[in-house]
Amino acid sequence: MAIDNFNLNHPLSKNQAITSIDPAQITYGKAQKIVNMSMKLLYCVDNAHIYKTTVFQNCHIPIDSIILKFFRLNSSYVWSNLTPDKYREVQDEC
Questions:
Q1: Residue 76 and residue 90 in contact, taking contact as beta carbons nearer than 8 Å
Q2: Integer Rg of the chain from CA
Q3: How far apart are CA 36 and CA 89, in angstroms?
Q4: How do residues 77-91 score in pLDDT, each as one tens digit?
Q5: Which of 8, 10, 78, 79 has the smallest C-beta neighbourhood within 10 Å, fewest atoms?
Q6: Residue whose C-alpha is closest to residue 32's, from 72, 69, 73, 87
Q7: All residues at 6 or more sequence positions from 51 whose CB lies less than 8 Å from its CB, including other chains
Q8: Reported pTM
Q9: pLDDT in tens, 15-40
Q10: Cα separations (Å) of 80 from 30, 31, 47, 86?
């Protein structure tokens, strides 16, 4: 199985991988990217319409360099380094 091969060849065990993440290095922008990309993937599955009035109404546009360019937003924005205030500012501008 592919996942078994990955786990055998990955240098960190699941426990080490989780504890090796420094929470101080996780920015608001990175956390939001994980949430919003999870929403995007969920939206692609069958019966996604059942989440429209629950999960999806609380989601934001996933911010990345393509979205920033599309909306011609401030080029100083870096999605992975957004603070909560800058994140809200970008969402409002989109």
A1: no
A2: 17
A3: 16
A4: 787 788 888 888 888
A5: 8
A6: 87
A7: 42, 43
A8: 0.56
A9: 555 556 677 778 887 888 788 778 77
A10: 5, 9, 31, 11
Tokens of 34: 């994980």
Residue ranges in 1-94 assigned as alpha helix (H): 2-9, 14-19, 28-43, 65-70, 84-93
Question: What does DSSP assign to residue 1?
Answer: -
Task: Go through the chain and tell me how many residues it has.
Answer: 94
Mean pLDDT for 50-73 is: 81
Q: How far apart are alpha carbons 34 and 65 in whole angstroms?
A: 15
As a whole number of angstroms, the distance between CA 88 and CA 42 comes to 23
Residue with tokens 């969920």: 42
